[in-house]
Amino acid sequence: MTTLKDLLTAFLDHERDRNFSRCTLRNHRYQLTAFLDWLDAQEHTTTADQLRKAHLDAWLKHLNGHRTPKGLPFKAQSLNLHIIAARTFLDYLAARGFVPVGLPTALQCVKTPNLLPQGALTHAQARKLLAKVPTGTPEGYRNRAMLELLYSSGLRAAELLGLDVGDVDFAHATATVTGKGNKQRVVPIGRTALRCLESYLKAVRPFMARDPAERAVFLDRHGQRLRYNAFAQIVRACAARAAVDDVHVTAHTFRRSCATELLRGGANMYHVKDLLGHETLNTLKHYAKLTIADLKKTHEKCHPRERDEGQP
Predict the structure, then answer these.
(1) What is the pLDDT of residues 155-175, one digit of tens each?
(2) CATH of the domain spanning 4-106, picked from 3.40.50.720, 1.10.150.130, 3.30.1020.10, 3.30.2130.30
(3) What are the residue boundaries of the structural domains of the chain, listed by start?
(4) Among residues 236, 252, 264, 273, which one is catalytic?
(5) Active site residue: 87, 144, 255, 256, which one?
(6) 180, 236, 273, 289: which one is catalytic?
(7) How far is 45 from 51, CA to CA, in rounded Å?
(8) What is the average pLDDT score of the chain?
(9) Long-range contacts formed by 302-307: CB under 8 A, 24+ apart
(10) Is 278 an annotated catalytic residue?
(11) Does residue 44 carry a catalytic annotation?
(12) Which CATH superfamily is domain 123-291 in?
């Protein structure tokens, strides 16, 4: 009898064959392994034919009562990531006859609160953060080049870390990046980011490289391609050093900030969509919502009643 863990391996291979990002594969492996471990420990369920709706209901109850290491309940968005991963896995199983077609519908996402947009730096905050990155060591100069490129070109973290030396075209100030679905696109690099990147590649990377065959742009202290976890720690450390208020800074913050500032500056939304590598304009709402200050300025400028000041 094929076990659920065997089927999980096949599912992850299926996603890998469909060019899912390394980040998605890593998250699905973690989320679904935890799901199957719980089924085994709590429900003694290890094969697909044993799986019932009651097991899924009990797992959802477990998720809702779960606490973070700090003792806080999971946020709705975090719960939904686990639920979506499990439902996607069950959809895969149902399509292949391992579970009833209706079983995945037992997993419904929880309602998320309508939160105000968060996570975009103002240009002043971005300048402050970038200026605070120490550049007195090879790693520090590398960090400045990475963050400048993130902010300039709106890259995803995986796209940044996936860059090879041959992907950068200094003559045309562009880089060829590989995004979601293994799709490639060419993005512009701003003057400041290009200058930092060129200096890093010419003066710093040669001292960090150990293997001539390694083509990654950004290297760790061992001369290998920098990994996401190490990069995330770098971003957190740089943000803490800058003491940026009101924004929880992650690698994605620079991408959102890039899009927001471009739109504020009057950039065409279709150009911003192409820069970010999105299929539709609808996705931009996640990165570039107007702040209340922007909204108030627009209201004062455009609403006819605001021009009636002093009139009855």
Answers:
(1) 999 999 999 999 999 999 999
(2) 1.10.150.130
(3) 4-106, 123-291
(4) 252
(5) 255
(6) 180
(7) 7
(8) 87
(9) none
(10) yes
(11) no
(12) Intergrase catalytic core (1.10.443.10)
